[in-house]
């Protein structure tokens, strides 16, 4: 199998990475484009760091089992099927599913720390950063965490101020300097999707 083309997509929490990825994945066959997400590699709750107020902080690079993440990405890029249990963000109302990632000609790698981990960064061919204004990211985060993860607004706001923003400024935003493409997503990312779909289609043609 020819080496797949690996595209890394990052951005702050609430920047719109999930919808961006879904839009791309829906545009191609599963044999053409697959995805591996950092969100499935969080360490168990008991291994997470605790802040000065006794709150768990999931927004640190140490929160991720990046060795496992890098190993699975490497295996996938070598043509192997990878299986992983879904991480449910401690939501007791969700039963974890088994995620099966199959090899494809293009691999999308998604996550807030993917460029921070050298072992993962060195496997990525095209680096993309999705950005949005801070207040828009916060609005999206509030909506998502209430609806999908069962968090109340006070909890989300505390984490955003004390965990998410400091982490973004230290571990995510600096990598805007090394990426190949910055995608503004305050309203929509239509133009960027067209550009990336064309680039992926071109790579698929090159690979036959």
Feature tags:
37% helix; alpha/beta; 9 strands; Rossmann fold; five-stranded parallel β-sheet; 208 residues
What does this structure look like?
The protein is of the alpha/beta class and 208 residues long. The protein has one domain: P-loop containing nucleotide triphosphate hydrolases (Rossmann fold, 3-Layer(aba) Sandwich), CATH 3.40.50.300. It has six helices and nine strands; from the N terminus they run E-H-E-E-E-H-E-E-E-H-E-H-H-E-H. The protein has helices spanning 17-25, 66-77, 118-121, 134-148, 153-172, 190-206, and strands at 5-11, 33-37, 49-50, 56-57, 82-85, 98-101, 106-110, 126-131, 181-184. The chain is globular. The model has no long low-confidence stretch (mean pLDDT 91).
Radius of gyration: 17 Å
Strand and helix order: EHEEEHEEEHEHHEH
Provide the CATH architecture: 3-Layer(aba) Sandwich
Give the CATH H-level superfamily: P-loop containing nucleotide triphosphate hydrolases
Extract low-pLDDT stretches.
none
User: What is the C-level CATH assignment?
Assistant: Alpha Beta
Instruction: Please state the overall shape, judged from the principal axes of the Cα atoms.
Output: globular
Q: Fraction of residues in helices? A: 25-40%
Distance between the termini: 11 Å
Could you tell me the number of beta strands?
9
Fill in the CATH topology: Rossmann fold
Structural class: alpha/beta
Strand content: 15-25%
Q: What is the spatial order of strands in the main beta sheet?
A: 2-7-1-8-9
Instruction: Please indicate the count of domains.
Output: 1
């Amino acid at each position: 199998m020819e080496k797949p083309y690996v595209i890394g997509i990052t951005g702050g929490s609430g920047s719109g990475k999930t919808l961006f990825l879904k839009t791309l994945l829906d545009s191609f066959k599963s044999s053409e484009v697959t995805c591996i997400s950092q969100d499935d590699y969080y360490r168990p709750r008991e291994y997470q760091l605790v802040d000065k107020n006794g709150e768990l902080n999931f927004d640190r690079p140490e929160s991720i089992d990046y060795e496992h993440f890098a190993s699975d990405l490497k295996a996938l890029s070598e043509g192997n099927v990878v299986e992983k249990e879904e991480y449910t963000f401690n939501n007791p109302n969700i039963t974890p599913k088994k995620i099966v990632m199959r090899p494809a000609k293009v691999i999308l790698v998604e996550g807030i720390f993917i460029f921070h981990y050298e072992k993962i960064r060195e496997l990525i061919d095209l680096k993309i950063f999705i950005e949005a204004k801070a207040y828009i990211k916060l609005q999206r985060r509030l909506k998502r965490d209430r609806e999908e993860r069962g968090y109340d607004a006070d909890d989300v706001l505390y984490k955003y101020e004390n965990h998410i923003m400091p982490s973004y400024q230290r571990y995510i935003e600096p990598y805007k300097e090394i990426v190949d493409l910055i995608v503004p997503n305050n309203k929509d990312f239509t133009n960027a999707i067209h550009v990336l779909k064309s680039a992926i289609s071109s790579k698929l043609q090159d690979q036959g």
